[in-house]
Amino acid sequence: MQKYLIIALFIGILAPAQKVWTLEDCLDYAVENNITVKKTVLDKTTASLNYQQQKNNKLPTIYGSSSLGLTNGSSIDPITSSFVNQNILSNSFGLSGNMTIYQGNKLNLQIEQNKMILDQSSLYQKQAENSIVLNVLNAYLQALYYYEGIESAKYTASSSAQELKLTQTKFKNGAISKLDLADVETQDAQNQYTVVNSEILYNQQVLKLKQLLELDPSVDFQIEKIKLTDLMESIPDKQQVFAQAIENLPDLKIYDSQNEILAKALEITKAGYKPTLSATAGLNTGFTSTQDYSYLNQIKNNFNKSVGLSLNIPIFSKKQNDTNVKLAQIDIEQNKLDKISASKTLYSSIETAWQNAIANQAQQKSSKVARDNAKLAYDLASKKYEFGGFTTTELAVSRNTYLTNEQTYLQSKYMAVLYTQLLNFYQGKTLTAN
Question: DSSP character for 233?
């Protein structure tokens, strides 16, 4: 038996400790593994490939060709172009190429536009990362809030269990009625259930956080169970926060980038008014059965080269170019309006976080005093009840008052931390759980 105990102890020592996830761990993992973020990474890769291909579009196009044919009857020899009336077996080979020399600078403009799109994809990636960061922060703090609720519920349940024992003793001694005992039993059962329900709420919130991190369901996930201290940080000026948010966040930069892309699209559209100059070149040879020369001699003798230039000047295109230019200009104006709307939304979010941070800090301060006083009153009420100075009803009222103030205090404390961290996020500061 002693041998098995030693083995079990040895295994326990060697077993790796279970990972406890801090807020920083959760944020880093979420940014690295979130599906939405991964999609933006793929979008960025796509933009990079499109940019490279657009640069490759300046290269010439070269392709080879070969044909083998048999003609019966009166026809034109495909090699000599002579009109003959006999069976013709022909075989031809060719190498052709073409290249756009000038197209109103359209190719260069498209390369510049695709580079802008590639740069913009980085902003979309950062925006997706910021979104998951805020979601994880909110879920993590919510889990800590529920965890403190468990401890509060356990304290109340422990107190009510002691009260129940005391009440049962009083009932046996005939000091109280059966109805008073029933009231205390009911309250104790409710308090015990509150503990179970608080644990369920905490576990459900941890599950939500686990899902945000895209963790496998089989992973045993536990967060660092820290208690937040009372937060009394100074609240920054909201105008300053807004100015820093514009500088640090990609939300409005995306529209600035989009404006550059659309401006470049307008230049590309205007290139439709300009002529296109293209160059072509070719190498060709072939064999035909209408000639008496050998196959190899004909391949050598029928070899020819060709070069050419073609100029395409737009004269009338059903006003399609005019329409395209006007549509491109409308897109630019629409983007400007979208930026104004996004700016208002960002400012509104900052204003809301700023007001909530101030309100919850003030409520946290007042509710802490109320909670402490209510707890003191509840402790005194328990003592008075023990010595017969309080009825069960009066004790229940004192307990409920304490629980209400405790709940208000916890909520204001966590909301103060959340909104203060949001303001830190807008300013580009590191997020913490405290």
Answer: P
**Which residues have a Cβ under 8 Å from the Cβ of 243 and sit 6 or more positions away?**
none
Q: What is the DSSP letter of 47?
A: H
Question: Per-residue pLDDT for the chain (434 aa), expressed as one digit of tens each?
Answer: 444 444 444 444 444 456 899 999 999 999 999 999 999 999 999 999 999 999 999 999 999 999 998 888 777 777 777 878 778 888 999 999 999 999 889 999 999 999 999 999 999 999 999 999 999 999 999 999 999 999 989 988 998 898 889 889 888 988 888 888 898 899 889 999 999 999 999 999 999 999 999 998 888 899 998 877 766 678 899 999 999 999 999 999 999 999 999 999 999 999 999 999 999 999 999 988 888 888 898 888 889 999 999 999 999 888 999 999 999 999 999 999 999 999 999 999 999 999 999 999 999 999 999 999 999 999 999 888 888 888 888 888 998 899 899 999 999 999 999 999 999 999 998 887 76
- CA–CA separation, 245 and 342 (whole Å): 12
Q: Which residue shows structure tokens 């580009």? A: 428
Burial 133-162 (b: 16+ CB within 10 A, else e): bbbbbbbbbbbbbbbbbbebbbbbbebbee
63, β-bridge pairs: 96
Q: How many CA atoms lie within 13 A of 93 on its CB side?
A: 10
Contact of 409 with 367, CB cutoff 8 Å: yes
User: Is 53 buried (19+), middle (13-18) or exposed (0-12) by CB count in 10 A?
Assistant: exposed
Q: What is the rounded CA–CA span in Å between residue 153 and residue 58?
A: 71
C-alpha separations of 399 from 166, 182, 390, 402 in Å: 16, 17, 12, 5
Considering just the CA atoms, what is the radius of gyration of the chain in Å? 39
C-beta atoms surrounding 386 within 10 Å: 14
Cα separation, 400 vs 405, in Å, equals 9
